[in-house]
Amino acid sequence: MPEPLEAVIGLEVHLQLRTRTKMFSACRADYFSAEPNSFTDPLTLGLPGALPVINRQAVELAILFGLALGCQLEGRAQFHRKNYFYPDSPKNYQISQYDSPIGRSGHLDLGGRTVRVRRIHLEDDAGKLIHPPGEPVSLLDLNRAGMPLIELVTEPDLTSPLEARDFLYQLRSLAQTLGVSDANPEEGKMRADVNLSLRAPGAPLGTKVEIKNLNSFRSVQRALEYQTEVQRRQLRSGEAVRQATFGWDEAAGRTYLLRSKEQEADYRYFPEPDLPPLAITKPWIEKIRARLPELPSAKEARYLALGVRAAEAALLSQSPDLSSFLDRAIAAYPGPAQTLVNWLLGDVAGTLTASGIEIAASPLRPEHLAALAALVDRGEISGKMAKELLPEVMEGGDPQELVAARGLRAVRDETTLTEAIEATLREQRELAERVISGSNPKAIHALFGQVMRRTGGAAQPERLRDLLRARLERLAAERAERP
Amino acid sequence: MIDEAELDHLMELAKLKLSAAEQEQIRGDLNAILGYFSALEQLDTEGVPELARPVELENVLREDQPGPMFSQEEALGLAAAREQGFFKVPRVVE
Question: Among A53, A106, A458, B83, which lies 20 to 30 A Cα-Cα from B60?
Answer without folding.
Answer: A106
